[in-house]
Structure formats: structure tokens, C-alpha cells
Design goal:
Layout: H1 5-21, H2 30-62, H3 66-84, H4 89-104, H5 108-126, H6 131-146, H7 150-168, H8 173-188, H9 192-210, H10 215-230, H11 234-251, H12 257-272, H13 276-294, H14 299-314, H15 318-335, H16 341-356, H17 360-378, H18 383-399, H19 409-421
Helix pairs in contact: 1-2, 2-3, 3-4, 4-5, 5-6, 6-7, 6-8, 7-8, 8-9, 8-10, 9-10, 10-11, 10-12, 11-12, 12-13, 12-14, 13-14, 14-15, 14-16, 15-16, 16-17, 16-18, 17-18, 18-19
């Protein structure tokens, strides 16, 4: 039996060729038959090799070998596109696998570009409301959010969710995943009141659909814990974090990236609670685990490194904090780009450290970049922007020989506005 559409087309074309040739001597019939047989055999070989490479990519992904997975997926995509054409469903699925591998490697802007290609091609192939198109649209929104393109991500999520609800229903996992993704976006922007109902919807939906111990449910538990932590609902946050950690360790293993995500957040949570020994233990565990699982330059590893650096900074352990902060900033500039919100955060952190050590000439350009970038990314009224402006003003006054204690609120505001223009 012919297994793929391509093989069936080859067979039909072979039969048409025979019909067009008309009757010939018996010996002459062997060549078209051989052409037909060779085409089917070659198509089968290409299909089998592409399937093998895709399985290989899945195995590498499960093992956390994201670079190797990407190579396998790219080779599978090249074979399928060459044999099926750029718009074929199997080609688009293979391109989607490449985009997902790039996203897992932390190259979010590149992943967004690839998901955009998948989305646009699926619109042309299936229409805007087909399930495959909506999957691509949600993947695009997630990558845009991770890349710090918050406005574009929000627009995409807001277009996708009503279409998912109409096409697939409110209780479909894809719909719930998009709702959770929009909640993550709002959380990243500090829009906690808007994130909360979306997180609750995601948790209730995943729990009802998939059960309490499914990885998607545990992700929703983790997200809600993170939100409660910033809302000063400490008891609820810790209970949810521990539930997520226990479930992920049991279901996924201690070195899985999602387990390490909860480990990392617990470290930050315990620091805020003043439990320094627990905080440092969890932060070191998160950094070590992510270096092993993801590599030193993955965005998640850099986040763990930045968290540990901040922990040391807050305890005046500057000699330990500085190399970690410098490494985090350089890594984020390389992987995420100079304007990504996380890069700006790293610049602000290192700038504050230099300021505390009396190195204003080193602090000023970092704080200036952070303030200007956050004004553009987050707006003037965002807490992160205000902190950056405050630090920049203090740095400039320090360089001018003015004591910060002599600054009135009115002058601080004036200096902040001047700092924005420089």
C-alpha cells in the first residue's frame, strides 16, 4: 500500500505516462515501469529518512539536547520541503518543529520569525480558523512575548483566543494554553490584576481536563504561585510552589527544565522571606541544574545566574556578585539582544553595583541604557522604569558631587526628566 500522498501522486503520474505512450512492443514497456517504480522507491526513502530525523529530534528534545534536536529537525524539514513543496502540510509541520527547537534553545526572536512563516503559510493553505493555523498563531504569540515584543504578543493572543474558543471550545487544551500565555504576558508587564483571573482559568481548565499531576496543570500551579509571591500572599505562594515542585520532580524528574524553573523561583521567594540559607541553596541548585541541562548561555541559565548575583548584591557580597552580573549582561546581550527587557534588567543591576562601589563612571552608561530602554519597553510609570530613572539621577548627582540626602522630591523629579533627554 502507498503510504503518503506523494507516493500516490507518483503512481498516478506513472500510469498517466504509460497511457500517453500508447501500445509499444513488449520490450519497450519495461522502461516506463522502471521509472514509475524508481519514483515510488525514492519517495519512500525520502519519507522514511525524514520520519527518522523527526523521531531523532524528539528523542534529543526529551533528553534536553536542544542543539542536536534542532539539527535533526532542520534536516527533516529540508528533505520534506524538497519533496513535497513549501506549502504542503507535512512541510509546515516540519518547519513548526524547527521553530519550536529554536524557541527551546532560547532564540526567541528567531523563533518568532519562523512561527510567523508557519502561521502565514497555514492561513494560505487551511484558512484563518483551522486548528493548525490557530496552533501556529498561539506559538507565534508565545515567542513574541518571550522576545519582549509585548504589544505584538498581546495583539496576537487577543485575536487568537476568541477564535480558539469558537473553533475548539473553552475546555480545549489549546484554548487554555493561550489563556495561560496571555496571563504570563500580563505578569511580565507587571499587570498582576489582569493576569490573576487568566491564571485561575488556566489552572481550573487544565486540572479538569488533564488531572492534577499533568505537566500543563503543574505549570499553571507554578504560575499562580509566582503571582501570589509578588502579591505578598506568601502562605498561598509557598504551598503552590511546593505542590508544583513535588509534582514536577515526580512526573518529570529533578533535572527537567520545568522542575528547575520551580527550584529557581523558590530561591527568589525564600530570599524575599528572609530565609537566606534556603534561598542560596535553591539558587545554586537552579544555576547548576540549568547549566547542565541547558548550557551556560540559555536564557533560563542566565536568569538563574542573575538571581544568584542579586542575592549576593543584596548582602553586600559584591566580589561574588560582580562577575555573575557581568556574565549575565554579556550573555543576554548576545542571546536576547540589547533592548530585551531582561537585558535592560541586567544592565540596571550591574549599574547599581558599580554605583554602590563608588564607580559612577562605570554605572552611568549602564543605568542610562536601562532607563531609556525601559521607558520604551514598559512606559514611564512602570515600577522598573521609575527605579532605573531614580538610580540614574542618583548616579548623575553623585558624579556632580551632590549629596543625595540634600535632594528634594521636586528636584529629584526635575533631574529625572533631564536624565531622560540625555
Amino acid at each position: 500500500m502507498l503510504k503518503t500522498a506523494y507516493q500516490q501522486i507518483c503512481a498516478i503520474l506513472g500510469l498517466m505516462l504509460l497511457a500517453q505512450l500508447g501500445p509499444r512492443p513488449a520490450a519497450a514497456h519495461s522502461r516506463p515501469a522502471n521509472i514509475w517504480s524508481h519514483g515510488v522507491k525514492q519517495a519512500a526513502q525520502i519519507s522514511n529518512e525524514a520520519a527518522r530525523l523527526s523521531r531523532e529530534g524528539q528523542e534529543f528534545t526529551a533528553a534536553g539536547s536542544f542543539a542536536a534536536a534542532e539539527q535533526s529537525y532542520r534536516r527533516a524539514f529540508q528533505l520534506i520541503e524538497a519533496s513535497h513543496g513549501p506549502e504542503h502540510p507535512e512541510t509546515l509541520l516540519a518547519l513548526n518543529n524547527v521553530a519550536a527547537a529554536v524557541a527551546r534553545a532560547g532564540r526567541y526572536a528567531e523563533a518568532a520569525q519562523l512561527f510567523e512563516q508557519v502561521y502565514q503559510r497555514r492561513i494560505g493553505r487551511f484558512g484563518p480558523d483551522h486548528r493548525a493555523t490557530l496552533v501556529a498563531m498561539t506559538n507565534l504569540a508565545t515567542s513574541l512575548s518571550n522576545a519582549g515584543e509585548y504589544d505584538a504578543a498581546e495583539t496576537t493572543y487577543r485575536e487568537a483566543i476568541p477564535r480558539l474558543e469558537t473553533t475548539l471550545g473553552n475546555r480545549n487544551s489549546l484554548t487554555i494554553n493561550a489563556i495561560n500565555g496571555l496571563g504570563v504576558l500580563y505578569y511580565s508587564q507587571g499587570r498582576f490584576a489582569e493576569a490573576e483571573p487568566l491564571y485561575f482559568r488556566a489552572l481550573e481548565g487544565f486540572e479538569a481536563l488533564l488531572g492534577a499531576d499533568d505537566p500543563a496543570t503543574l505549570l499553571a500551579v507554578h504560575n499562580l504561585a509566582t503571582l501570589h509571591a509578588v502579591q505578598d500572599r506568601s502562605a498561598e505562594a509557598e504551598s503552590l510552589y511546593l505542590r508544583a515542585l513535588e509534582g514536577r520532580q515526580t512526573t518529570l524528574g529533578p533535572l527537567h527544565v520545568q522542575t528547575l524553573e520551580t527550584v529557581a523561583n523558590l530561591g527568589v521567594f525564600y530570599e524575599a522571606q528572609g530565609r537566606d540559607d534556603d534561598a542560596e541553596q535553591f539558587m545554586v541548585r537552579a544555576l547548576s541544574g540549568r547549566e547542565q541541562a541547558l548550557g551556560a548561555l540559555h536564557p533560563d541559565t542566565l536568569t538563574a545566574q542573575g538571581n544568584l548575583a542579586t542575592f549576593y548584591f543584596n548582602r553586600a557580597r559584591y566580589d561574588e556578585a560582580e562577575p555573575l552580573m557581568q556574565s549575565t549582561l554579556e550573555g543576554r546581550r548576545q542571546i536576547l539582544g540589547v533592548t530585551h527587557p531582561y537585558t535592560l534588567r541586567a544592565a540596571a543591576s550591574l549599574g547599581r553595583l558599580h554605583l554602590m562601589r563608588g564607580q559612577g563612571h562605570l554605572a552611568e552608561p549602564l543605568l542610562r541604557d536601562a532607563a531609556n530602554g525601559r521607558i520604551h519597553q514598559l512606559g514611564l510609570e512602570h515600577p522598573g522604569t521609575l527605579r532605573s530613572l531614580h538610580a540614574l539621577v542618583l548616579c548623575r548627582l553623585n558624579l556632580s558631587g551632590v549629596e543625595p540626602t540634600s535632594i528634594t522630591p521636586a528636584r529629584l523629579l526635575l533631574e529625572g526628566m533631564r536624565a531622560r533627554r540625555r
